[in-house]
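[09:14] KT: can someone run the structure on this one? pasting the chain below
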Amino acid sequence: MAVLGYGSFIMVVIKFINNLRKPAEAAPAPAAPPKDVLLREIRDELKKSPRV
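[09:31] RB: done, structure tokens below
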């Protein structure tokens, strides 16, 4: 009975540690590709410039 208790405790600890790690790994959002950033900057500059 004691062996089963130790095994269950170890499994619970391992699952807990894995659950703590998963959100930390998934947290960083991917940065916008440079092409999208460049297109946004061009769009913003065109909005600022007076129309002829």
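[09:33] KT: thanks! Helices lie at 2-26, 34-48.
[09:34] RB: yep, looked fine to me
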